[in-house]
Design a protein that fits this description.
The complex is a heterotrimer of chains A (456), B (300) and C (604). Chain B has twelve helices and one strand. Chain B is an all-alpha fold. Chain B has one domain. Chain B is globular. In chain C, helix 3 packs across helix 19, helix 4 runs antiparallel to helix 5 and helix 15 packs antiparallel against helix 17. The chains are: A mainly alpha (456), B mainly alpha (300), C mainly alpha (604). Chains in contact: A-C, B-C. Chains B and C meet through strand 1, helix 3, helix 4, helix 5 and helix 9 of B and helix 15, helix 16, helix 17, strand 7 and helix 20 of C.
């Protein structure tokens, strides 16, 4: 059944090649179907061995407590994108393919299968980045991403050479830890590129600021979520953390540099791109902080990630439509923009507030006093320029602008903004889920058993 | 009842002393100044004549704030004066706390400033601006020296300090010579006499605050000036020259007053910024020196 | 307490929607809520604990809470009533009204909290609500908003870090419990924690070095809201300082430095000194009347800090008294400015003049406000200054005294400038038809004036509140008996002073009445040394009022410029990063190689 999550979108993608005009409607229907399937019909844990090859020999698709919430969130975001974004018909096909491949990446249990899906995602991402005549940035991203993909392939192949199997669980079980570390380094670099950690994330500002309502939203929300899932799966569950202290240092430097760069920007899009980089780097730094296996930190980081992703969705959508003009005629967009900025900064009582609070609390408990300093300092800078943007946009003196936010988009961003506030009042709704993810993500034995027994 | 009657008598005594002897000594001051300048000078009762003459003439007013300001000025200074101990004559024993007197004094100053500027004449505003600036200059060293005294005697009541001087047998001018010097310099500024006469500066800014005064307003303000001088010099005598009985007090008062007049007749006028920067260098340093001595207990 | 917070939250929503119908309804909601809350708080006994929305034991009503809540509610009630008329000039009335009520909610929540995180939440709510009101003012208020949020965040996040340092040691967020344990920590820890916690209070009350935001924010915010900002929100910072200084046994935690003053207090007193100096000297220079009083708030924050930091029976009480004095005075002054701007449309002193002849009630409000601010009897302002002076003299702190006196005398200078420039002097031609402020605006001004004088002559009620605070924290409380205020170094009687003032005034009035009446002449009939003037607008001394004094300190360093320089340096680094991001694809690959090499080489 879970294979339907990949198969159905692929099939409908072919349909839209033949009937391009319907892609606008097929995309949301596909996303809706996925959601319905996930919420109603499939539950953890399930395993599908493709082609009935046993796990160690073939490809395995697995749904467990770690990727179930991620799947729901990603499909929800893609559904929201389908309603809120404006795109040409041919892109619709690509987006449906993207749905299929993200679902595939989240479900897969095989290194090479993951590579395939990663490459498909990247290909779609390159094409999306070229929207709004942003070809040069897309080209640079392509080069960067291709190198990253190659490095990942080296890592995956090394695991195969040592262990004789491409299955993640088996390979991780069989390999010696030192070997897994070396192979993991290559995979790490590949993921750092996608996770936009400076200096490997230097492609992001050019790509995210193309002003489309589609590119930064999809790249910044759905793809980022998927990458973070994959990072957790590989480095927490299967292989064990690779050089966490070094990643920690690089991520902290990335936070600082990204916030400084954001201060200077004159266009909102580029500033938001740096905000995205800083947010992703913070989550990564938190992932690498504390002792391995610290569930509280991971849980709090996931809340932070969720807050970041939803906030950036709203912010980029508003920027994409209004292109930096004011909120005088766009009251709903303005409210959504301000509410999400507030959540991003972490004022009470929003999701971002609980995220930062829990994160700092967990870090202190783990004995890490350094990262909180950087988180708080970067918050000060972020507060400064985000409030400045808010004030400039609310009180701008532009004449009546032609730009407006379409009704569907308004509904979506308002709902997201309100969700952030509602979760701020009732944080347990989210933290329960992330606690659950955190408890399972370090549990290699459960993961392995699920694969061995084929889902029982 | 007896208490209130006694208080009223004492207050009346203080006010009448200030009125009578204040104007008399002013007259003597004019005589002395004249003799220094090789003139004969007006008779010693000239100021009485001036006050009564002005009070009985018809003048003009620029509005209610002018009237109110003048009343507030005179009222405030009278209120201040009633608290100041004239040696052994204290109207409100125990309530003569120095800070209260210093700040009550400012009521009068504020009233005058407000009333004068309320005439609408910019010369008055300039004069008041200068006066306030000068106040920033002379008050700070003065207050530091006085608080050093207060710290030494562990009290803020002036009568207590007078009594302490009598008990220990020496005047504070001997025990705290630097402080006394600073207080004298500040006194010259408080009195508005040369070299710190810039706020009034008769020829330069048409007498500054008093440019639009006429008739009874002039008279009321002359009274106020007299009372102000009386308060300022009395404070100095109480703090540094040991107060004393009624006539001894008045003698010491006269000596300090004469000294101030003589200094003013021979010195020119500082510009206002010269005055302020002077006050902010030499007297402040001396005041701190005195405070340092006091804290370490080095008094004579 | 919890019900008050709930009502305020609902009130904010109600106020917003009612304001959409008729903008005058919003301030009425605020006024009614403030009066109700004032009544509740006045009656409430101190020492009660309450839960908040299901979280147990996080609210506590201490004597300090009561005192500051009453002050805040008086300010907000006056603000609310004044706004009923003023709101017609506000840019976005509905948001303004709703956010004002939220600000009140935040500050009351801060005063009621006994749990650090709850305090932090309410603090941020107050900051956030006021943050969105500030840009509704003048054009420059947008930049001012950024100053506000950045410096406020610096203070708040230092505070948050300190809270977590404490939490990791004691596993509790309860303020009073931590106060018991903290004595036994290492010196470094104590210094770090106390300074971090105080940082939020220092940033909020505008003490050096975090004072640079006050001028722009208070000066450019919507006119009546400046009264709340200056009269009430900075008091939130003073509350935090008072709380930390009293709950933590500071006197025992730090070594004694000078005459019974411990070293932390000494550091704080010096910060207060510099704040007074900067505030006073900069205020003397200002030409905009609101910025002038904004700087005076910096100076008065310094007074309050000095008073509180002495931790002395008289000094601490003086600091607390100064909180209420400055709150009332700042509110009166800003409301009178709001009335002036409402009628004339400008805040520049040299564009105004002679308004006393058209707006006498506004003038009297301003006059009593500055009398209180300058600390002149018989207003309440003098009492707090007297207490602080006495306490400093008794400890022999002469250098601090110098700063305090400079501040006090300097305040005569700068408060006189708007008096002379705006209300007195020549009435400009364009303002000849200006009317007095509407009656609705006059009422709160008159009430505040009456309160200032009342508490100046009969300070017992305020002193009762203050001594309750001192007793609750185990400090020796200030002594007073009726209207006689006593210290170890002398005493005085407020009633006698007032009576003598009245007597003096009466004597002067008698002489005045007995003597011939003066003839009333128009304002233009002046001594002009023989010149014939056509345009009396120019015969007004207001521009560069104190230029002779300002010349003395002309080349002073500007902290605003220093902070901006730091910001520019950071932007420079950011520009470099952005430069790297725009390079070619091969540059990107270079970075990949670098990171790969780094990861493989470093042996962590």
């Amino acid at each position: 059944m879970i294979a339907l999550l990949v198969a159905v979108p692929l099939a409908f993608a072919f349909v839209t090649v033949a009937l391009p005009k319907l892609s606008k409607y097929i995309f949301p229907l596909v996303a809706l179907f996925n959601l319905a399937l996930l919420i109603g019909f499939v539950h953890p844990s399930q395993v599908i061995e493709v082609g009935k090859w046993p796990a160690a020999y073939g490809i395995v698709l697995l749904l467990d407590n770690v990727n179930y919430p991620f799947l729901i969130m990603v499909n929800l975001i893609l559904l929201a994108v389908s309603i809120s974004a404006t795109f040409e018909e041919k892109i619709g096909t690509l987006l449906i393919v993207l749905t299929a491949s993200i679902n595939g990446l989240l479900l897969t249990g095989d290194f090479f299968n993951a590579y395939v899906f990663l490459e498909i995602i990247s290909a779609v991402a390159y094409i999306l980045s070229a929207q709004n005549k942003n070809s040069y940035a897309a080209f640079k991203y392509l080069i960067f991403g291709a190198v990253a993909g190659t490095l990942y392939l080296i890592g995956a192949v090394s695991m195969y050479v040592y262990s004789g199997t491409l299955n993640m669980a088996f390979s991780g079980y069989i390999s010696a830890p030192e070997y897994a570390q070396i192979a993991g380094i290559f995979m790490l670099i590949a993921m750092l590129v996608e996770l936009k950690v400076l200096p490997l994330g230097l492609w992001a500002p050019d790509v995210y600021s193309n002003g489309s309502t589609l590119t930064p939203v999809v790249l910044g929300s759905a793809i980022t979520l998927a990458m973070f899932y994959f990072y957790s799966r590989v480095f927490f569950n299967v292989l064990g953390s690779v050089k966490p202290y070094l990643v920690y240092i690089i991520a902290i430097i990335s936070i600082v540099l990204a916030q400084l760069a954001a201060m200077k920007q004159k266009t909102l899009g580029r500033a938001l791109a740096y905000v995205a980089i800083a947010g992703a780097s913070t989550v990564l730094a938190a992932f690498s902080a504390g002792a391995p296996g610290d569930e509280k930190i991971i849980s709090a980081s996931l809340v932070y990630l969720l807050n970041d992703v939803i906030a950036l969705f709203v912010l980029f959508t508003v920027f994409g439509y209004l292109k930096g003009k004011g909120f005088k005629d766009n009251f709903v967009a303005g409210v959504a923009f301000s509410l999400t900025s507030i959540s991003l900064i972490g004022f009470p009582l929003t999701t971002g507030f609980w995220a930062k609070l829990n994160l700092i609390s967990a870090l202190f408990e783990a004995g890490d006093k350094l990262l909180p300093i950087f988180i708080l300092s970067s918050t000060i800078l972020e507060a400064g320029y985000l409030i400045k943007w808010n004030v400039d946009l609310w009180y701008s003196e532009d004449e009546n602008s032609e730009e407006y936010v379409p009704f569907g988009a308004q509904i979506v961003i308002l709902l997201f903004a309100l969700a952030l506030v509602v979760f701020g009042f009732m944080p347990n709704l989210i933290t329960d889920q992330t606690d659950k993810i955190a408890s399972y993500v370090f549990d290699f034995s459960t993961y392995f058993d699920t694969i061995l027994k084929g889902g029982m | 009842m007896a208490g209130i009657a006694g208080t009223v008598t004492r207050v009346a005594g203080v006010l009448l002393t200030a009125f009578f002897f204040g104007l008399t000594f002013e007259g003597f001051g004019r005589k002395i100044a004249a003799r220094i300048q090789k003139r004969y000078g007006p008779p010693w009762y000239q100021n009485f004549i001036d006050v009564f003459k002005t009070l009985t003439k018809h003048g003009w007013t620029h509005g209610w704030i002018f009237d109110f300001g003048v009343l507030m000025a005179l009222g405030g200074v009278i209120a201040t004066l009633s608290f100041v101990p004239l040696g052994n004559l204290v109207a409100f024993p125990g309530l003569d706390n120095f800070f209260v007197i210093a700040y009550l004094f400012t009521v009068g100053a504020l009233g005058m400033a407000m009333g004068m500027v309320g005439t609408g004449n910019p010369w008055a505003s300039i004069g008041v601006a200068r006066a306030l600036t000068l106040m920033l200059g002379y008050e700070v060293p003065y207050l530091i020296v006085i608080t050093a005294l207060m710290f030494y005697y562990k009290t803020g009541n002036i009568s207590d300090i007078i009594v302490a001087q009598a008990q220990s047998g020496g005047w504070n001018i001997v025990k705290f010579p630097i402080g006394a010097l600073v207080a004298l310099i500040s006194l010259q500024g408080m009195l508005g006499k040369e070299p710190f006469e810039a706020p009034i500066a008769p020829a330069e800014i048409a007498s500054g605050p008093m440019v639009e005064l006429s008739a009874k307003y002039m008279g009321l303000l002359m009274l106020m000036n007299t009372f102000m001088e009386f308060v300022e010099i009395s404070l100095f005598v109480d703090f540094f020259l040991g107060g004393g009985t009624y006539f001894v007090f008045l003698l010491k008062y006269f000596i300090v007053w004469t000294f101030a007049v003589m200094v003013s007749t021979v010195l020119p006028r500082f510009r206002i910024e010269q005055a302020v920067s002077f006050y902010w260098t030499v007297p402040i340093l001396l005041a701190f020196l005195q405070a340092f001595f006091v804290v370490n207990g080095w008094v004579f | 307490m919890q019900s008050l917070i709930l009502y305020l939250g609902i009130g904010a929503l109600v106020g917003y929607f009612l304001s959409k119908i008729n903008k005058h309804l919003g301030p009425i909601v605020l006024f009614v809520l403030s009066i109700y809350a004032l009544y509740v708080v006045w009656q409430m006994p101190t020492g009660t604990n309450e839960a908040l929305f299901g979280f147990g034991d996080v609210l506590r009503f201490t004597a300090l809470s009561k005192y500051l809540s009453i002050i805040s509610l008086i300010v907000f009630a006056s603000f609310g009533f004044f706004n009923i008329a003023w709101i017609s000039k506000a840019k976005r009335p509905a948001a303004f009204n709703a956010l004002s009520i939220l600000t009140l909610l935040g500050t009351l929540g801060v005063f009621f909290s006994s749990h650090f995180i709850v305090l932090y939440i309410f603090w941020e709510i107050a900051v956030l609500a006021s943050l969105f009101i500030v840009p509704m003012g003048k054009e420059e208020s947008k930049k001012a908003t950024v100053w506000y949020i950045v410096i406020s965040s610096i203070g708040t996040y230092l505070f948050l870090y300190g809270i977590f340092m404490l939490y990791s040691k004691y596993s509790t967020f309860d303020i009073f419990e931590i106060g018991k344990y903290i004595q036994n920590e290492t010196v470094g820890f104590k210094w770090a924690v106390v300074l971090l916690l105080l940082a939020a209070g220092i940033a909020k009350s505008g003490i050096f070095p975090l004072h640079v935001w006050l001028r722009n924010v208070h000066g450019n915010a919507p006119d009546t809201f400046s009264a709340v900002l200056s009269g009430q929100l900075v008091k939130m910072g003073s509350y935090l300082i008072a709380l930390v200084l009293s709950v933590f046994p500071i006197a025992n935690m730090f070594a004694e430095f000078y005459n019974g003053v411990n070293i932390l207090s000494y550091v704080l007193i010096w910060l207060g000194n510099i704040s007074i100096l900067i505030g006073t000297l900069m205020a003397i220079k200002q030409n905009d009347m609101k910025m002038l009083i904004a700087y005076s708030t910096v100076a008065n924050g310094g007074y309050i800090l000095i008073g509180l930091a002495t931790l002395h029976q008289v000094g601490y009480a003086g600091g607390l008294f100064h909180i209420i004095n400055h709150a009332l005075a700042a509110t009166m002054i800003f409301l009178s400015f709001a009335a002036v701007v409402y009628r004339t449309g400008t805040t520049k002193i040299d564009e105004l003049g002679g308004l006393i002849h058209r707006m006498p009630v506004t003038f009297v409000t301003y006059l009593v406000g500055i009398i209180s601010l300058a600390g002149i009897p018989p207003t309440s302002g003098f009492i707090s200054k007297w207490m602080i002076f006495q306490s400093l003299v008794s400890k022999g702190m002469f250098v601090t005294e110098m700063f305090v006196f400079i501040g006090s005398i300097g305040s005569f200078l700068y408060v006189f400038r708007p008096l002379a420039g705006v209300f007195l002097g020549q009435l400009k031609n364009k303002d000849k038809n200006v009317k007095e402020a509407p009656g609705v605006m006059q009422i709160p001004m008159i009430i505040l004036t009456a309160l200032t004088v009342l508490w100046g002559v009969f300070p017992q009620q305020v002193l009762v509140w203050i001594t309750d605070v001192q007793k609750e924290f185990g400090m020796k409380s200030f002594e007073f008996e009726g209207t006689v205020l006593k210290t170890s170094m002398g005493y005085w009687d407020t009633w006698t002073v007032f009576v003598m003032f009245a007597v003096g005034f009466t004597i002067a009035a008698v002489i005045y009445i007995l003597m011939p009446k003066g003839k009333k002449i128009p304002l233009e009939d002046q001594y002009t040394s023989g010149e014939f003037l056509h345009n009396y607008d120019l015969y007004h001394y207001a521009t560069k009022f104190y230029v002779f004094l300002e010349r003395e300190y002309e080349g002073h360093p500007s902290f605003e410029d220093w902070y901006l320089a730091i910001v520019n340096a950071m932007k420079g680094i950011g520009k470099f990063i952005d430069y790297l991001a725009r390079r070619t694809a091969s540059a990107y690959l270079f970075w990949t190689a670098v990171v790969l090499a780094l990861i493989m080489w470093v042996r962590w």
